[in-house]
Amino acid sequence: MRILLAASEVTPFAKTGGLADVAGSLPAALARLGHRPCVFTPYYSRLMRGGARVKETARLIVPTADGGKEAHVLEGSLPGTDVPVYFVARREFFGRDGVYGSGSYSYADNLERYAFFCRAVCVAARELELDPDVFHINDWQTALISAHLRHLYAGDRHLSGAAVVFTVHNLGYQGIFPPWRMPATGLPPERFNWQELEFYGQLNLLKGGLVYSDAINTVSKRYAREIQTLEGGYGLDGVLRGRSERLFGIVNGLDYSVWDPAVDHLLPARYGPGRRAGKARCSRELRERMGLDPGRRPLLGMVSRLAEQKGLDILIGAIPAIMEMPVQLAVLGSGEDHFERALVYLADRYPGRLSVRLGHDEELAHLVEAGSSIYLMPSRYEPCGLNQLISLRYGTIPVVRETGGLADTITDGANGFTFTDYSPDGLVGAVRRAVSAMGRRKSWGRMVDGAMREDWSWDRSAGEYVRLYELARAERGLPPSGRARRGRGRGAKTARTKTGRSPRARKAGAAARPRKKK
DSSP alpha helices (H): ranges in 75-138? Predict the structure, then answer.
């Protein structure tokens, strides 16, 4: 199956959250299953990480509200794989110091930036003759692709045979803009109505993705149910209930080539189930790095964006009671100013027992996961969550609120501890039960070893996505992708490269297929 995945961020090139991890890991897992994925993402020229080696493969004119703008399409690959990555480059939109904004402010032209990207993906897929069987789009930044395919490219022979799967990673971010900016979408004004893009008088891009896609999924089964409720639907619960038969939940996978204490080169010692001496060494190193008192007290850890969604309000309320227990707490993260100030104040109040590091430090994040015995995730809501899955692999037992993906992956008393009441008391009670369980060394050891052996790999999740892709094609009335193939190459326009040469269309299409490793 030919799968085109479009995302506004992809690990390791640019990352602000879990979307990047999915976009950087799922395509590789799909390729291992024998499918032919490719990835489209913006080329954030000032932010590119991961040693991306790219070459220009096409220059395209992308239609815009003011006539048209040129896009350069650069081609690279996901590190360690043959999966092609097509970067859409235009300095005006993507040559900035941030992905979506600067500090706490979003860029004022985000609608224009991502509308341009969406249209560029469609133009590039057609001009390069990639002929996808499925477009897999993610969050509001790519939602317009589904609308463009339905209304602007409905008869295009290279695009009209594709189904669209739309993944909602966090319904709280919807891409809402004033109605007078509708022309930037490139869609006719009649599409602005209550059944399509209009949302309480505003333009809502994510709503368009929900309406136009053939199948929708979120990143856990529990979250798929929660967003259909008045409390969790952020105003779109009615739309989601109306599409409930095509709404699914697939838990994100974990990249064990990055997150596995048996091979993690960022740790001072490696370890695994039944051989946990290296974890004790990681605990000693974490205490030293974070300025915590030496010893053998239970060590609690947390790596998080410091925001209310992540439960920082109840964590701060719970810390005085938690510090009455014989424990230590290490926190790494950054976010809202008032939460940062509150944590720093509490760290000063409990020296040697509570340590806070503000900012992002990848090596320290790995050490917190490995060196802690208990991991805290008191989220108000959590579409999926990766840190609880990382913690399981590292033998660090999660304490989580029973919501979204946390409820789908953590079972109280089996591989972690859960609580339902969103309050400091609820969190304190769960921590107290976890600390008490640590005192029963044999049963705790069995829980730790069992957690480390659980399989939350992308290979498992990728198989579920393949079934979803086939369901989306069936919903659209398309044949199974493994049987009927569309012709390619005849009479098609070719992509004009930087040097002015016109490569054969079949070579451009073949770029979407994983190359054999030598």
Answer: 91-94, 110-127
The residue among 385, 386, 405, 389 whose CA lies nearest residue 397 is: 389
Residue with tokens 């589904």: 146
In contact, 226 and 172? CB cutoff 8 Å: no
> What is the Cα gyration radius of the chain?
24
* Spatial CB neighbours of 25, under 8 Å, sequence gap ≥ 6: 11, 253, 255, 458
Q: Which residue has the tokens 């393949």?
A: 466
Helices vs. strands in the chain: H and E counts, helices first: 17, 20
Interaxial angle between packed helices 139-151 and 110-127, expressed in degrees from 0 to 180 and rounded to the nearest 10: 50
State the pLDDT at residue 49: 61
Closest CA to 242 of 210, 197, 201: 210
Q: Given this model, what pLDDT does residue 45 score?
A: 85
CA distance 299 to 395: 13
DSSP-H helix ranges across 176-244: 205-212, 221-226, 237-242
Amino acid at the residue 219: V
Residue with the two structure tokens 């990047």: 20
Each as own residue / partner, the long-range contacts of residues 100-104 (CB below 8 Å, 24 or more positions apart, any chain) are 100/8, 100/16
Q: Is the pTM of this model over 0.90?
A: no
CA 404 from chain centre, in angstroms, equals 15
Chain Cα centroid distance, residue 170: 9
Distance CA 345, CA 356 (A): 10
How far is Cα 275 from Cα 242, in angstroms, rounded to an integer? 51
Asked whether 397 and 451 are in contact (CB, 8 A), the reply is: yes
Per-residue pLDDT tens digits for 134-155? 999 999 999 999 999 999 999 8
- State the DSSP string of 139-193: HHHHHHHHHHHHHTSTT-TTTTT-EEEEEES-TT---EE-GGGGGGGTS-GGG-S
Question: Which mean pLDDT values do the consecutive 10-residue runs of the chain (518 residues) have?
Answer: 97 88 94 97 81 85 92 94 95 93 88 97 96 97 97 91 96 95 95 94 97 96 95 95 95 91 97 94 97 94 94 98 97 94 97 95 95 97 93 98 96 97 98 97 96 93 96 91 45 34 37 39
Between the two ends of the chain, the Cα-to-Cα distance in Å is: 23
CA nearest to 399, candidates 261, 306, 300, 287: 300
| Whole-number pLDDT of residue 165 | 98
Nearest to 329 by CA among 286, 361, 383, 268: 286
Rounded distance, CA 104 to CA 98, Å? 11
Whether the Cβ atoms of residue 474 and residue 133 lie closer than 8 Å to each other: no
Kind of pairing between the strands at 55-62 and 69-77: antiparallel
Q: Which one, of 148, 154, 157, 122, lies nearest residue 40 by Cα?
A: 122
Q: Decide the pairing of beta strands 2-6 and 134-138.
A: parallel
How many residues are given for the chain? 518
Token readout for 241 is 């209930």
Q: Do residues 126 and 486 lie in contact, with contact meaning Cβ atoms separated by under 8 Å?
A: no
